[in-house]
Amino acid sequence: MKKRGLVVLFSAVLLLQACSNKDFKPRGIVSETDVCKVCNMSIVHEEYAGQIALSNGDYEMFDDLGCLIEYMKNLNKGDVGKAFIKDEGENNWVDVKTASYVYDKDIWTPMSYGVIAFESKDSAQQYIDKEGKGKLLSYSDLDSFKWGVHH
Amino acid sequence: MKHLCTILYYFVLLWLIFAMPAKADQLTLQEQIDGTPAGSVLVLEDGVYTGQITITKPITLRGSKHTMLEGNGKESLLRIENVQNVTLENIHITDAHVGIVVKNTSQVNLLNVQLQNVWSGVQIYNSKHVVVNNLKIKGINGHYSKKGNGLDVFNSNDLTISNNKVQDVQDGFYIEKAQAIKLTDNDIKNSRYGIHFMYTEDALAEQNDFNQNVTGIMLMMTEDAQLQNNHVTEQNGLNGSGMVLFEAKNIDVLYNHFQNNRTALSTQKLATSTVEYNTFQMNQTAIELLRSNKENTVYANDFVGNIVNLRSDGTSISISQNYYDDYDGIDFDDNGIGDSPYVALQSFGQWMVRKPSYQYFIESPSVVLLNKMDRQTNAIETEQLVDKEPMMYSAQKATTEWNIQLWQVVTGLTGLVLGLWLWRKEASV
Fold it and tell me: Which PROSITE patterns does its entry note (chain A) (predicted)?
């Protein structure tokens, strides 16, 4: 009897642990139905899109990095599972917190905020060197960044 | 050897016929443009002209009845750059990535141009005093996320865009950072947004027709705009809206007709704006107010046959003297204003703001019951979504045009007289 109780307890602990170690993954965009949670625009330029996998299992989609950051500021820390943004160069999802960013007033984005994301600092720097314009930003810089059109 | 000479002779003859440089009357279109003096009119004969074209001098390029410019579908076809006083008229453009690009110009007129099978129709950058009239733009097949816009305007001012028909594109008109722009009598359908304003000032959208787009007018971060007398119908997809006003200031929405939209008018972060003299008819939700400020007014509108007239996230707004077809108050003093307030607050309407997917339960028995309970409890609501002066009659005078056809009246009267005569004749027998 005691053994059976231990087995049940062990299984329950394993199950709870499995639930708490949720692996948050990005989901694909559905252009027909996905709209930005902040500005309401349909997400048609996937290369600039972002998303937040909430800890409750829901997803919120965004058409521009600026909308995603604005929404994240109003969330409790525990509500966010993981946030993703599209990599400018490769068009794959990268973690918002580890990505590097480039800002220039002439870079077009759906909300004209002019900030694009890269998976690594090197690829962001390569973009700046190649285009001859842009300022390198980190995730922490986005917090104080003045979102809005700058031209 | 003799045979070889003969073959060589014919080869040289063929080369002379087909590979020699073109004569004056066989010049390419670009060569004809280059040879046209500034200020002149170049009239193009009927026919198909291929190859990219650039206009950098003040001329008028006028097509005939069947003049067509044909591209390869991968590049911009016609460019007008760094120039003043260019007019393009009566041209048919097909198979281009972008039909016409206008850049760094002044006083450019695009008149009677037809564009089809183009990824994007016209793009205007850094220009002023531009007229776009009577264009017909039809995009490529497929989902709107894979297409360009009908007409793009960037960093330009003083534009008049009128009498155009646009369909099957991403946004009919995408207007970014423009000033003094007038969009009148345009017809936009089957696209994502009819007109998409971004960071624009001093805009007028008047007498346009929006049908079966995701959203008729999407207005974002824009100031000082008038949206009036537009006909906004059947934007009724999952995310469909007649108009969305986002983070905007000083917007007047006047005399528009909204019919059969999922949400007719959605406002978010709207300031010092007015919604007056509009008709909201048979929409799922007529007006949705989110995070908007107190200085907005909803005045003298008609709400007829909508499922939800007004809903909000608690946003406060001035609502007065509108007509609601579901108002059941009475008017003892006969001044045309109901004696008791109209309360638009609906629990379910508020929930739909937070979870749009609830719209699919809108007429379910439980929701109908909830709405009935709301009506009982709403009597004590005095602040949120309350119109203290609801009108007993429509603010808009319905106008019906009488088209009396004389021949129909004569035929009808003759038939009536003949029938009466036959009836009397048979009765007398």
Answer: PROKAR_LIPOPROTEIN
Domains of chain B: 96-387 (2.160.20)
Chain B residues inside the 8 Å CB shell of A151: 155, 177
Burial class (CB in 10 A: 0-12, 13-18, 19+), B149: buried
Q: What is the mean pLDDT of residues A125-132?
A: 94
For B339-396, what is each residue's pLDDT tens digit?
Answer: 999 988 777 877 776 677 787 787 788 888 888 887 777 766 667 789 999 999 986 6
Nearest to B220 among A35, A39, A46 (CB): A39
Sketch the domain layout of chain A as residue ranges. 24-144
The pTM score is 0.82
Interface A–B counts its CB contacts (< 8 A) at 44
Q: What is the CA radius of gyration of chain B?
A: 30
Q: How far is CA B268 from CA A35, B259, B262, B296, in A?
A: 15, 21, 16, 11
Q: Do B176 and A112 touch (CB under 8 A)?
A: yes
Does ipTM surpass 0.90 in this model?
no
DSSP A82: E
> Using CB atoms, which residue from A32, A33, A40 is nearest to B246?
A40
